[in-house]
Amino acid sequence: MAISELKLAKELIRKPSITPRDAGAINLLAKNLRSLGFNCKLINFKDIKNLYAKLGKSSPNFCYAGHTDVVPPGSISDWSVNPFRAVIKNNKLIGRGASDMKASIACFVAAVSKFKSKNKKFKGSISLLITGDEEGIAINGTKRVVKYLKRKREKINFCLVGEPTNQNKLGEMIKIGRRGSITGRLTVIGSQGHVAYPHRANNPSNTMIKILKRIKELKLDKGTKNFQPSNLEVTKINIDNHADNVIPGSADAVFNIRFNDRHSASSLKRKLNNIFKSMTKSNKCRFKIKYEVSGEAFLTKPNKTTYMIQNTIKKVTGIKPKLSTSGGTSDARFIRNIAPCLEFGPVGKTMHKIDESVSVSDLKKLTKIYENILVSYFK
User: What is the pTM of this model?
Assistant: First the structure.
């Protein structure tokens, strides 16, 4: 049974699966995969739906990973079309999740249907690991599915994550790793008082300003062979004070660091905590800090599979993709604990934006790329 990438992409977009809602997207995907002979296992944690589907039982197991949840559309009146209608205009399929990443999933399923019709007795297995919790807090999605598969001793030999990796043209970029991400929630505690008597209080905002200036000026590194420099950005500053004549008792700030393989979350925590201790002590304040680590930096060292995928993409697009670690985090940070993985998908120029879209002609090319990758992998 041949599956159309465009038809399936439209059907998936029409499921308004705004994270963490599923809205029927996982079941729609499972129905299509069962028609191809996949054994579909729904792995749900709390209110999050996840799917692990597998065709075949032998090794090697080639896995495709992705997510069906999408970010909110924002003001629907700002869109030129309804974000969940999946409308084609000027050769572009428009809708929330078109780029990130329902069309990519549809392309891989279509590619499998084409591959299977021509290679009925291929040696190995094809699987899909699909979550409904990537755009949200990502606790009950791929992270837990990976642990589940590990417990079940399910072997994945290689994983291709279908995130939108290209900035402007299909074929520009393959992601071979990602920087790590750590968020810090800092509270500086001083002493409240009247603004007319500052000597009777200790204004924590003064200390907070000094601390934020200090950590922002940190030269973490200059980058490495495979990674861009690490960077720290202050994302929130808050003083919960409802009176204009009161020196506050505390001040809060949030910062995020995207770090390369020169650091670990633990080493950054130590460095920052030393600064916080020193600066609050010298300013006679106290501090509280809470860290959230969404992933460590990782790199999948290029090998013959990397170069096979790179060459396959070039044959279809005419572009030799760059091997990169740029951008934000993805679920590859969890999957890399059980299998080597790369990321390649559609153009991400419009992801999360108003009128998110993907080129219809790119969908055909991406399906061909995925099909040819399967052919070469199972040779």
Answer: 0.91
